[in-house]
Structure formats: C-alpha cells, structure tokens
Amino acid sequence: MIGVRLYLAQRLSAMIMAPLILVHLVVMIYAIQDGIDAQEILSRTRGSVWWAAMYGLLAAAVSVHAAIGLRSIVHEYLKITALPLNILTWAIGLFLMGMGANAVVAVTL
Amino acid sequence: MPKNEDCLDVSIWRGDSSGGKLNRYEVPREESQTILDVVYYVQRHLDPQLSYRYACRVGMCGSCAMMVNGKPRWTCRTHVNSVLNGNKVTIEPLRNLPVIKDLACDMTDFFDKWCKAKGFFEPTKTREDEIEPISPESPKRKIAAAAIECINCAVCYAACDVVERNPAYLGPAALNRAWTLVNDERDGGQTARLRAVGGDAGCHNCHSQQGCMTYCPNDLNPTLSIAGLKRATVVAALKGEI
After folding, report:
1. pTM listed for this prediction
2. ipTM of the complex
C-alpha cells in the first residue's frame, strides 16, 4: 500500500532528517562536554528562531517518515487496508507532529 | 518408513484448497535423479492420483516449480543430491499461490499481475513500417537483456515475503517483466506502465530482501529490476507524468 508519492515523501523526509540528526548529535555531544545543565541549554535554545526552525523541520520530517513506515508494517501484519489504513497513517503522522511541536515549543519558546 | 538405504524417504503434500497433509513414499535412488523424476516415479508407480504440473523437463517452460525442503525450486533441474536432508526430501506446492490439488497451484493471480503491471509490449508501429533497429550494445537494451530470460516459473513469487504479507503486491516476476519493457525503446505504453507499477500494489512495496534473486533458477535479479522501476517512477512523478 505504498505508491510512488508516499515512497517519495518517505525518501525526501529521510534526506531532511539525516543532516538534521547529525547536527543534533554533534551539537549535543559538544554542548554536554562540561556536564548537562538544562538551564544552560534552554538559555541557548529559547528565543532562537534557528533552533525552532531546525527542530520544527526535524519533527515534521520524522512525523512523515515514521507514519509511512508504520503504514507498511500495519498493512502487512494487521491486514488493514484502504480508508482505515489512510486514517491510521494520518493519525500516526498528526500524533507525532503534535508531540514534536510540543517539544519544540517547550525548548524554544 | 523406508528401511532401504538405496531408497529416498519422500514426503509429498497431498490435498486441495481445503487442506491436506504430507504423505510418505519410498522411492529408489537413481544416478542424476531430479526432484521431478521423484514426483514422476511416485505418480507412475505408487500413487496414480498424485497431481502435479510439468512440460519440458529441461528448464525452459517454467511449469514444474515446487517447494523442495521448504525452498522454491524448478524441480526438473534440481538434482536430488543437491537438496537431500539425510535421505529425506519434502515436496510441497509453491508458497503464496492457492492450491488446486496436491502439487498443482492456481497460477491465475500470478499471471493476472503480469497484466496489471502492463507486462506486455505496446507497439508503436504497424506491420507496414520498417523494423526499428535496436543495437545489442545500446545501454537500454543491455539493461533489458539482463532481465529478459524469465521463464514465468513463479519461484521468485513463492520466495517473496512481501507477496505473503501483502497479497495485492504485483510481485517480483511481473515487475521484472515491466522493467524489461520500460527499457524497450520500441514500446509506446510507458506512462501507463509506470503508473501501474508506481501504484499502491507496485514496486515501492518491495523491501529489497532479495529472496527473488536468491532463488531465481535463471540467476536473474528482480530486486535490481524493481530498484530500477522505483527510480523510473520517481523521475516520472517529479516530472508530473504519472
């Protein structure tokens, strides 16, 4: 139940995720060299348009990517098809997007 | 059951679409014996009601594929010595296809999917036109040639876990055939074909597990063909053609 558009969306979201996750990991490892301090990290991320844009984009890409991946698994193992499968795919994507948006707002606003 | 060391302990699945079970037979060992020879012996000498399918016996027609010790194989070219487990061999109907009776499967879905994948040539010329020369050295012809020797045996279809999980999936054989036509410069049905193989049951459902390539008796690589279709459909989608 994966057509060319969903395939393309999953590949494009992976292409967005890959560099952003690298930036996330590198910055995280660099930032905790002197120990983890939530206040110090939040002081850098809060009010930053760039961090909000980066993590907002990452959360959106993860939501698209994971929803399509889970769609395949759900279809093959639970035999859900057609409209119920589409509804489930959207529900997973929107749920992940909501969780991601909540986290992004929490660390950047 | 068999006590004679010169005999094979053969288990053959007997039944129909409502179910069945393995029956055991004692079959004399022969030199250069194939699995099809074993099935033939059982039907001729031990169990005349055994149903199975074969035609050419030389690996060309693609009729005689069965599961042998759990793996899909063309039985006419599979030597007993290469698959024996001790002196035991288990022969069952092909996986992922409905059984008609015993070892004979219903191939309707398999061939219908060739049509759904537009796995047939769409001519662009009439018999009045000159034959279009295609160089054997042209890159597209070389790609088509690498995938063209499919004998429709359904071994790849039986080996595919995606077909098992997603019965609508077109499967490696139909998609491999479509790929040869995508690379046929004389063909005029490309947009419809790419739309068909890029649909919900098409090439993008392949997980590249490569069971088709592992078991193809003609050493074809349908996974590679499917990867080519994925690229071709993505390009066509980005251009707005499908």
Report:
1. 0.91
2. 0.86
